[in-house]
Task: structure prediction
Amino acid sequence: MRTRRRHVGVVFLTVVLAAGVLAAAPVRAGGAAIGFGKGLLSLERSERPTSLQFGPDGRLYVAQLDGKIYAYAIVRDGPNTYRVGATETISAVRSIPNHDDDGTLNPSVTGRFVTGMLVVGTAVRPVLYVTSSDPRIGNSETGDTGLDTNSGSLSRLAWTGTRWRHRVLVVGLPRSEEVHATNGLAVDAASDTLYIAQGGHTNMGAPSASFNFLPEYALSGAILSVDLVAVGNGPYELPTLNDRSRPGSPDANDPFGGNDGRNQAKIVPGGPVQVYSPGFRNPYDVLLASNGLLYATDNGPNAGAGGLPAGEGPGGVCTDEPQEPGETAFDSLHLVEGPDDYNGAPNPTRGNTENTWGNRSPVAAVGANPVECDFLDSGPARGSLATFPESTNGIAEYTASNFEGAMQGDLLLVTLLDNLVSRVQLSTDGSTASSVDTLFSGVAKRPLDVTTQPDSGPFPGTIWVADHPSGKIAVFEPNDYDGTPPPCTGLHDPALDEDGDGYDNADELANGTDPCSAADVPPDADGDLTSDGADPDDDNDGLGDEVDAFAVDPDDGRSSTLPLRLTWDAGDPSPGGLLDSGFTGLMSDGVRDYADRFDPSAMTVGSATGSLTIDAAGEGTSHGPANTQDFGFQAGIDIGPTSGTFRLRGRVVAPFGDQAPEPGQAVGIVLGTGGQDDYVELSLTADGVSFLRERNGTIGARRSTPFVLPGPEAVDLILEVDPAASTVQPRYASVNAGAAGPAIALGPPVSVPAGWIAATAGLAVGVTATSEGPAPTFPAVWDSLKATSLVGGAP
Result:
């Protein structure tokens, strides 16, 4: 999940290895350039959309995270101008009851977590298939919420002519403790088989703190197949293990309540729900293409979120023992080829029947699949068609004949934080990717799903993208929608703007965007139609990007007030800023452009664990005169001498990848003026919990106390600030199961210059990580950063 000045997401093809694919000239179909215009669907009301598709009735169906589905009648008022003419709200799925993980009904939990929808049927009888699960989200901040880890379900909604008839077809599918769930859908009408992209429960196969120590289940982390004839009108209740903590046989409240695996669903030989293709970590979407082949996207693991299973390898001896820290690997596009096609993400439950609950294995009846103990890297080892550095999710096929048919059969994929749509051209037999390039950049904020219109659709050749945090639906209209597209030379000429998007040809080509497509635009933080790469002041506040501590905040923190809450969870409102992280700049060294002080491809914002991760914190430090700190993200808060005391708290998860820190390594939080010469830092180091103050480039007020690591699941680092007294009180607390222990003072309060509080710009608060000297790199993970007022008592 990253975005750079011009960061191109695709890095691997089955036929080509490359650092990226930049469009140096317009893509052409015969003599015509492939180009699109862009508009936003007006009058739509979606919030947190997760899936969208046009139905056979010509309406656009949009599912959102809370379980509500909208059916929009779309009106085209002119080129690139679309609006909703009428809206139907479908709430049937949202009304499915929720349970706790012990199987008991919990009526206080309302709504459903919807991440998959498929629309089929006819114009007069449309049919929706929808996947949903428990709406709660657990992580290192919230701990175990009690969500039902057997809450995944498959619904069918059929229009009768007067109403939607809702049938829950399958219940008891897995649901992770965080956001990996029962996701996208595809159907093979010829065999009445429905395919489900089922998310996994771990980062790399082993239970971990970031995933609340939930193990993989028998049906998690796979493409599942559902025999629609066999399940009929449902509900088909997946048989589960006998949970000895619950009365009865079968257990009370089955199949609900996975109970951390004790009551998970079993694989039943010949049953209507099967593992069609194993070895996925979190397949978000699955597509049955017009060539008859099945494709899926899969989210790769993140550094510091959990490691390989103990006993990893193809020998079938892996266990469910918790392991840290884990590494980042790319997302991938897969051709899904069936049960013998292992895709590389371990599942110890399927890999080794010795992993049991109450001496019972949920896969004993079908036997172990030892290869599922083996982790395979994204790329050739997994048979990936292409890999992507960022979270790549929704997938669709372009079937329209626009541009003389040049895009027919191409796959379109959306990448979340890179904010782009990629075009994948397939080989003739569909088994490999012949090329991958960026079709659109600057889509919205975090695009999640994509759908297209065929020649027979109401808006032929258009592409529609759902943006998750903003709720906007972007519409991309082909340049030849009303006939022959306008000519475009694609020349590197600053006097030309051939696509009319406001960015001249030279600026677009320098950024790798297409000068013949108004839908493909370079990053431009201040919207002044000069790309960030060519603009020396990205927020137009009069400060150059090399000295601006809040480089994408024109108010330099003075428009931001307490409380500040950055958690990066899936259900949170979009915080904006760099990478949609809420941070608006980096600790300034006065020399380097802010964009040169971090590498988006080496970090993750959000992901399943709701955290901010630097994959490998390395050389570079703000300590003393060096001023070489990278990844020192920060935001400004409007604080003055009369603001009242407040607390800055940063939660560090699995410090140093749950390893003992080495001298030179540090991960923590900072507060100061925004530069690398004036700040205080509270961090975890080889010395324990350490604090320092740097003033005018000179370090002082050093102190530390021993703290054994590895130890707690997380550590809270706390700076309590008294603006009136110009003092900072450092504290720290151990965190286990999402609950913090008592906050311990690290010595008395420390004075800071009054000028830090009364500065023209806001007070800078942020995070820092470094590994100096011979110390190795390590994953730095923050679950949250919060600044809250202490006036009237501690929050």
